[in-house]
Amino acid sequence: MTSTPLWVPLVVAGVGVVATLVAGTVGALITQRWSDRRETVAWERERQRERESWAREDEARTFEHRRQAYVEFYEAVKALARTAYDHCYGFTEEPELKEGWQSDAFAKLTQLQFYADRAVAAAASAAYSAAWSWGQYGVHDAPDDPSFHERQQRFDEAELEMLLLMRQSLSIPEADLALPPPGYSYPGNQGGDEGSDDES
User: Fold this and answer.
1) pLDDT greater than 90 at residue 102
2) CB 194 within 8 A of CB 156
3) Quick one: which of 163, 182, 150, 180 has its CA closest to 124?
4) What whole-number distance in Å separates Cα of residue 192 and Cα of residue 178?
5) 178 pLDDT tier (thresholds 50, 70, 90)
6) Which end of the chain, N or C, is less surrounded by CB atoms within 10 Å?
7) Under 8 Å CB-to-CB from 185, ≥6 apart: which residues?
8) What CA–CA distance (Å, rounded) separates 50 from 54?
9) For all residues of the chain together, what is the average pLDDT?
């Protein structure tokens, strides 16, 4: 009967133990690597979600600043035109406009130009210029002066153009694009005059 030397089972057992240890270590390393990769992907996904959320918040803040700048300038330029109208109609006692009568509208225009796109900024500047020149060059208490109506018409057209672009920029929907915006009537509409109802 041949006997197996004692060292053979020991070597076999040792190889088995080493193989088990190596397999366990390699398995743990592979599992850890997959886990790290999953965490990296999840972390990157979370960071991307945060970046998108911040971008949406920034966009919403910018939109709100833009909307506020549009509304404030629109009110200021309407007040500027009202001052010009009152001056030329003689509703003011002083024959000259007060110094700085245009300052508020100009400050609001500057703020609007920071947030507005180019088309709106150009239209707002044109509306401001039309209102300013209406008052600056208008003759006090002379509503029959032909230049009064020319300047009024110039402002009405510039204001309408600005209003349409502002509404478009703010994505304010129009139910019927053939209709004028509130406060206006297009030439040829039944029962309406040209220009704004405020200065007509």
Assistant:
1) yes
2) yes
3) 163
4) 14
5) low
6) N
7) 191, 192, 193, 194, 197
8) 6
9) 84
